[in-house]
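User: Let's play a game. I give you a shape written as C-alpha cells, and you guess the letters that built it. Ready? Here's round one.
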C-alpha cells in the first residue's frame, strides 16, 4: 500500500469513526423535536442506554446546582438531532470546564466527557491532550475505562500512530458507549491491516462479517472492497474457513546447508509491559531466579476476570558465522517460557479514626503459572484462530541448537500447549499454513 493511499484510508477511518450528523428534513424535525431548553432530554437521548446510566447516576445524588449543570452538559453533548450540533457541543465543553473547578472529586471523569465532546466536535488536538491526561491519571489508579481507550484510539488514528491506536482499541471492547460488535471488529481489522498484520486483519474482518453479512455489506461493503480487496471478496463466500499463512522472512541466500541461527532476528522487547507492575509478586510465586524480559503480552477475559499472557525470555549475546559471510554478533532470546495469571479487583474497607472509613480498590493476582517452551530460542509469535473456540490461540515458533525449528500452539482456554512439532526449513520461502484446525509446513 502506497503512502498516499494509506493517508486516504486513514482519512476515511477517522471520518467513519466520528459521529455522523443527522440529515433529518426540517419538517420532520419540527414534528419530532420542538425547540426546548438544553436541560430537557430529547427522545434520542432518552433511548440512549449510556445517557440513561449517567442520568441515573446523577439522580441518585442530592439535587444541587452542580448536578443541574452536569445534566445540562450531558443533554447538550448527546443532542444528536439538533440543527446546531456544534453549538451544543461548545456549550457542553464550556459547562464541563466549569464543573472541573466546582467538583474536584469527579474532575477526572468530567474531563473525560470534555475530551470526548471535543472529539465529537472535530477538535482532535484538544481531545488528544485532554484524554491523554485522563489516561495517565486512571493508569495510576489502575482503573479500566473502555470508553476512554476507544476515543483515545481514534485520536491516535488522527495522529497517524496506527500501532498505538491498535493497542488501545484492543484494551477497549464493544459496548453501548463506544461502538457495536460489528463496527468494533471492522475497526480492528482496518488497524491491523495498516499495521501490516494481514492474518489478524483477516480474522477480525471475518468476525465482523459473520455477525450479520447483509448488514455488513450495507454498512461497509463498498469501503471494505476498496481497503481489503481480495480478502473481502474471499470472506463474502459461504462457508469460508479462516486461514493463516506464516512466513519466516528469511533472505533468498538461505538454504538447508546454512546455519539458520545466522539469520535469526530476536523479537522486540515490550518497552512497558504489564509485568513491571507485578514483577516482584510473580517472581515470588513461580520462583524465577534470572532477570527476564517480556517479548509479547496480551490479555483476554476468562471466567469474568482479566487474564494475562506473557511470553518472556532472557537475552543472551553470541557470535555465529557461516561460510562466505562475515562473523555476526547476535542476541538470542534464551530460556523462553509463558507466564499466565489472572487479575481480580478486590475492594478493601479500612476503618480509620480520622476519616471513619476508607474504601480502596486493589488488585489481586491469582492462578499464576509458568509454562516452559519446547525450544532454545524464541523466534516468532503470532495470534491465530486454531480451534474455533471463544479465545484466540497463540502460535509460538522457536529454534533449537540443532538448526531445527519448533512450533507450538498455546490454548488459553485449557492453559496448555496444544501442539508441538519439529521441522527443518529447507528453503528461504518456506511457510506455515494453518487451516481447518491443521497446521502444515510448506517448502
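Assistant: Ready! My guess for every position:
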Amino acid at each position: 500500500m502506497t503512502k498516499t493511499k494509506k493517508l486516504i484510508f486513514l482519512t476515511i477511518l477517522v471520518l467513519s469513526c466520528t459521529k455522523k450528523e443527522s440529515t433529518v428534513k426540517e419538517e420532520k424535525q419540527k414534528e419530532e423535536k420542538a425547540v426546548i431548553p438544553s436541560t430537557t432530554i430529547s427522545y434520542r437521548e432518552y433511548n440512549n442506554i449510556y445517557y440513561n446510566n449517567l442520568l441515573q447516576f446523577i439522580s441518585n445524588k442530592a439535587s444541587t446546582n452542580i448536578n443541574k449543570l452536569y445534566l445540562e452538559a450531558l443533554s447538550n453533548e448527546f443532542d444528536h438531532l439538533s440543527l446546531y450540533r456544534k453549538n451544543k457541543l461548545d456549550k457542553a465543553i464550556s459547562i464541563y470546564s466549569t464543573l472541573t473547578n466546582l467538583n474536584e472529586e469527579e474532575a477526572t471523569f468530567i474531563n473525560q466527557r470534555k475530551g470526548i465532546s471535543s472529539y465529537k466536535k472535530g477538535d482532535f488536538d484538544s481531545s488528544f491532550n485532554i484524554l491523554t491526561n485522563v489516561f495517565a491519571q486512571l493508569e495510576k489508579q489502575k482503573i479500566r475505562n473502555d470508553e476512554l481507550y476507544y476515543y483515545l484510539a481514534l485520536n491516535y488514528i488522527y495522529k497517524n500512530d496506527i500501532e498505538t491506536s491498535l493497542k488501545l482499541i484492543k484494551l477497549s471492547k464493544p459496548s453501548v458507549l463506544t461502538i457495536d460488535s460489528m463496527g468494533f471488529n471492522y475497526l480492528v481489522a482496518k488497524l491491523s491491516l495498516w499495521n501490516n498484520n494481514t492474518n489478524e486483519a483477516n480474522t477480525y474482518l471475518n468476525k465482523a462479517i459473520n455477525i450479520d453479512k447483509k448488514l455488513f455489506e450495507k454498512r461497509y461493503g463498498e469501503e471494505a472492497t476498496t481497503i481489503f480487496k481480495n480478502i473481502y471478496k474471499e470472506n463474502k463466500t459461504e462457508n469460508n474457513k479462516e486461514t493463516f499463512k506464516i512466513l519466516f522472512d528469511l533472505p533468498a541466500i538461505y538454504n538447508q546447508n546454512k546455519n539458520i541461527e545466522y539469520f535469526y532476528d530476536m523479537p522486540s522487547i515490550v518497552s512497558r509491559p504489564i509485568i513491571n507492575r507485578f514483577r516482584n509478586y510473580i517472581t515470588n510465586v513461580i520462583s524465577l531466579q534470572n532477570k527476564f524480559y517480556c517479548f509479547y503480552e496480551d490479555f483476554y477475559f476468562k471466567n469474568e476476570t482479566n487474564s494475562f499472557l506473557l511470553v518472556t525470555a532472557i537475552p543472551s549475546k553470541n557470535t555465529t558465522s557461516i561460510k562466505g559471510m562475515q562473523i555476526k554478533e547476535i542476541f538470542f532470546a534464551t530460556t523462553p517460557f509463558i507466564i499466565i495469571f489472572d487479575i481480580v479487583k478486590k475492594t478493601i474497607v479500612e476503618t480509620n479514626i480520622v476519616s471513619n472509613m476508607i474504601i480502596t480498590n486493589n488488585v489481586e493476582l491469582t492462578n499464576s503459572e509458568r509454562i516452559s517452551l519446547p525450544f532454545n530460542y524464541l523466534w516468532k509469535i503470532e495470534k491465530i484462530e486454531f480451534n474455533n473456540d471463544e479465545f484466540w490461540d497463540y502460535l509460538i515458533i522457536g529454534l533449537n541448537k540443532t538448526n531445527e525449528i519448533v512450533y507450538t500452539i498455546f490454548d488459553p482456554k485449557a492453559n496448555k500447549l496444544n501442539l508441538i512439532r519439529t521441522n527443518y526449513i529447507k528453503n528461504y520461502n518456506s511457510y506455515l499454513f494453518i487451516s481447518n484446525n491443521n497446521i502444515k509446513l510448506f517448502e
